[in-house]
Design goal:
Radius of gyration: 19 Å
Order of helices and strands: EEEHEHHEEEHHHHEEHE
Number of helices: 8
Oligomer: single chain
CATH architecture of the largest domain: 2-Layer Sandwich
Shape: globular
Length: 285
């Protein structure tokens, strides 16, 4: 078996600053959310395989819980089914830093990052519109990773518009090592609201934290009972500007104005929740 020269790709994660569930339509929910990408990344090592088969390897904590029919497999199968990528096979190793089932978008980001690479590497003749359509077949939030610009996502999560937002937020992420299944959270959700008025919530310079919310918080907390304790501790930290879950959880985040207060908060969490996964990150908008 011969592998060609490899490339290393960066696959970013995301934070839902707010998330409105508008209503349920058919089996899916209409949503409205402001999303920023953060500098917490998976690394994807990819190289061509001389044999006519793919070899996909995940490395990192909890990778045994990743489905065999994961987003990487799905995007490769889809490209071959559509006869977009023929007679090319790969060894792909994904070094997972983004927690699984956390609401941080790791799986969707992995698929989108791979597709963008393959389009460029092999000069695939796919328009941006067709690229987004392909991604929506893998995961509704895949399209938000098409670039790293701030976005308002809507419809079922597959549509978006870019917005201007210049502050680079400093965040503390706490993950209680519990996988949250989006399907289960949405099924349990009973909280619905109107779409937030973006012009009231954000400007180029700041967020109005008192107007932010995540409609999935109650449903997510009922399935992951560790969430309320995490948020309660965030509420006791004076310099935490805002805190909530991201996406459908189970990861929680707090926004801080300076690095020192963020690092002090991380120490506080480490003392109380020694076994929880934590990360100090910033947005890359």
């Amino acid at each position: 078996m011969v592998y060609k020269k490899h490339s290393i790709l960066k696959s970013y994660s995301k934070i839902n600053i707010f998330l409105n569930i508008l209503k349920k339509k058919t089996k899916l929910h209409l949503i409205h959310s402001f999303v920023l990408q953060i500098n917490l990344i998976d690394r994807i090592k990819i190289q061509e395989n001389s044999q006519k088969k793919d070899k996909i390897i995940f490395k990192g904590p909890n990778v045994k819980k990743i489905s065999k029919n994961n987003s990487i497999i799905k995007i490769l199968k889809l490209l071959r089914l559509k006869k977009i990528l023929n007679n090319k096979y790969f060894k792909i190793t994904i070094y997972k830093n983004i927690p699984i089932g956390a609401g941080l978008g790791g799986s969707s980001s992995n698929a989108t990052t791979l597709l963008k690479y393959l389009i460029k590497k092999f000069n695939l003749k796919i328009s941006r519109q067709k690229t987004l359509k392909l991604l929506s077949l893998i995961g509704k939030d895949c399209s938000l990773f098409i670039d790293t610009k701030p976005k308002i996502i809507f419809n079922y999560g597959e549509k978006f518009k870019q917005v201007k937002f210049s502050p680079r937020l400093k965040l503390l992420i706490i993950y209680p090592n519990k996988i949250s299944l989006s399907k289960s959270v949405y099924k349990k959700n009973k909280t619905f609201s109107a779409a937030s008025k973006i012009e009231k919530i954000l400007s180029k310079k700041k967020l109005k934290y008192n107007l932010l919310k995540n409609d999935l918080l109650e449903a997510s907390s009922s399935l992951t009972p560790e969430i309320p304790g995490i948020l309660k501790l965030f509420s006791k930290i004076n310099k935490c500007k805002y805190y909530n879950i991201t996406g459908s959880g189970s990861a929680c985040f707090g926004i801080f104005g300076d690095k020192k207060s963020l690092l002090n908060a991380r120490k506080t969490f480490k003392r109380k929740y020694r076994n929880y996964w934590t990360a100090s990150v910033k947005t890359i908008n």
